[in-house]
Amino acid sequence: VFRPHFKTHQSAAVADWFRQAGVTCATVSSPGMASYFADHRWGDLTLAIGANPLQTGALDALAGRLRLGLTIDDQRTLDALVEDLHHPVAFWIEVDTGQHRGGIAWDDHARLVDLARGVLAGGESATTPAHTLAGLLTHGGQSYQAATPEAAAAVFATVRERLQTARQALLDAGLPPLEISAGDTPAFAASADWSGLDEARPGNFVFYDLMQLTAGACDEDDLACAVACPVIGVYPQRDEVLLHAGSVHLSCESLTIGGRTVHGRLLGLDPTGFTRLVPGWEIAGLSQEHGRLRARSPQARAELPALQPGDLVLVAPVHACLTCEQFSRYWTLDGQELPRYRRR
Amino acid sequence: VFRPHFKTHQSAAVADWFRQAGVTCATVSSPGMASYFADHRWGDLTLAIGANPLQTGALDALAGRLRLGLTIDDQRTLDALVEDLHHPVAFWIEVDTGQHRGGIAWDDHARLVDLARGVLAGGESATTPAHTLAGLLTHGGQSYQAATPEAAAAVFATVRERLQTARQALLDAGLPPLEISAGDTPAFAASADWSGLDEARPGNFVFYDLMQLTAGACDEDDLACAVACPVIGVYPQRDEVLLHAGSVHLSCESLTIGGRTVHGRLLGLDPTGFTRLVPGWEIAGLSQEHGRLRARSPQARAELPALQPGDLVLVAPVHACLTCEQFSRYWTLDGQELPRYRRR
Q1: What is this model's ipTM?
Q2: What is the pTM of this model?
């Protein structure tokens, strides 16, 4: 099953492109995002973040509208949910396959078995609806630290093996066969063979970004979003241009390139669309509303004096998910406005 | 004149507290923010970011509603504005007093004189409204790099001296006396004597944050905002608690404390309100929606097993301006909802 994560784009219009390509289910990371996509006819969503017992009301409302997958790694969360959910959900047990963020350690078979039995016991209760145990879910986010596609592919192999091992341990304990689900763009982009998993949930690949490019997960041609930033100051004497584009627009995420902190790079544009990154230009610093665009090459320094206040430049973001989160809509290059969900 | 920057709180309700204290004018950093405060009866606002020639329509609409100050450092911006503004504005010439973000260098007297004359010439044109030249404006943002209050106070003294020198140069060139305006919380917090400036525009002090605390600009008792974060996972075996509170909530801003990257700290609460930071707890890592809260002391590790999914903890942000930007309202500790502006 291909269940792409929609947290990167968070747009019903972009989601329609997935639907047109045959995708019928997706992953989200908050009840609000799930509700938005439910409003746009998505009927099968997994919330791939540990369910929050304070949100059982919102989760139950969602479960009444669609096939809802919930992620848990703690019996107390399960108990709180089972007590308050009136509609059936599919529980995924989160497994820590090496990221050390959420989940039960992949080799802590005792806890995995206990929680799996807990879900099945809750599901069998006469007073609760027929919740199901869908399987084991992980986010192999350690792939974001991989410097090369080979390293990311190695993460993929390790994550898959650990999920398979955990599933086998549950089988050996007498539990039914479970699905295994993983998703993170660097590892999936680096791996041609996704076999051995039941479900794939990458998300960032829809736009890619400088972080993925630097790790070799994509090519420059794959960069699919950029922020149009107005020039508000030009300073040839210090090789800089000032943009009204700060942390509140680009996010404060950064990359280290050649020992320098970089918050974005310029993307070229011609009548065919985005072209390539423009060499020699980097966002060298951000404050709340300002971005300092620095010319680092002789070529860029030669181009700089031609820029003037009121020009627009396109900045490719370091981390597309965080940058897009700052906006409430997209514009396509032919001027179409695409709505997106925005957290209140 | 005390013209606090409202970009930190962006809330009409918080602004009312300023009004009750006698404040009648404010600073903002976007036309949208200005429009929001204009809707809430603020009639004198300065936009303290280089004016964007692409926004002359919005700026003109604002100038028709209130006394609008605009910031410029380029003749081309001035020309674009003067051509399209039908309502009078007050122009501030931005001066670079050492931050090297926006502005004409404080000692580039020739360019300062030229632009000042340009404003006066535009103002005298028979076909344009009577724009005024208000003065010289700077942001001494280099104070954010000051590690101590003494270093921040030294920035204050330097910034003031440079503004005064620039003003004198304009006087010597035959221009009328101009006001000088500066504003940045670290330098103003560190300086008991604000004399010698005509206008003060600090903003962050309304809430303060861990960055200001670390620089000695405030005490723990001054921390006035925090994010209520739900616990979604508890991992005693690796001294961590997982919060549904990621970069999209806290912003990805970080501080280095004892060589460690810290994205937030826990703030205590009792019936009297916020108390002090809780020792031994730090947000050690963020991803888009997750925050990893780490117990670093024996005391914190002892407290950890008592936490459970569904608990709420209060996280004091590293940089209040960026964190608050992620939300559309505040809650006071007695349950009152305070609206805030949110950029679309």
Answers
A1: 0.95
A2: 0.95
